[in-house]
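DEPOSITED CHAIN:
***
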Amino acid sequence: MDEAAGRKILKSRFELAGFPVQEGHRFESAGVSVEIDGFDPASKVGYEYITTAAGDREDLTADEIRQLVASGAFLVLENQHGIAAAVYVEPRTGDCGYIGMLSVDPTLQGQGIGTRLVRIAEAMLQAMGATAVKLRIINLREELGRWYRSLGYHEVGTAPYTHRPVKRPCHFVEMQRSLV
């Protein structure tokens, strides 16, 4: 299925569920502009259709993408060269949201883009009622722990990594940040 067809299906499902979505909704914060495929500002619910044909997270299977899109959204930052950065945002039951899979084009790292995208994701989750944000990182990426701590996150636990076979033993480090 191509992206236009996927967006059309998502729009119809959201509208059938009672969400009058605006197509191509733009969020702007801290000098970063992000557009998602559909968003209902009143209920703060939205969607972004993802395709592997467009190069979106090719390491995810089609089933994994369907599961992610069913429960959250991807914020994608584009520039004149294509995708500059992306992050997965998921409102969860209770008052704690989730972000994950943050990635920034290596040629653009160190310019604050990741920080701004995380802050936009946090603002979206807060607008949806979250008072805290959780995330998971792989313990082998120690630099990620330092970076997220610099953004105000702290470690709250660990979880086993059982998603795929690994070359080196590893686990998740769970981190959290208060939004209030």
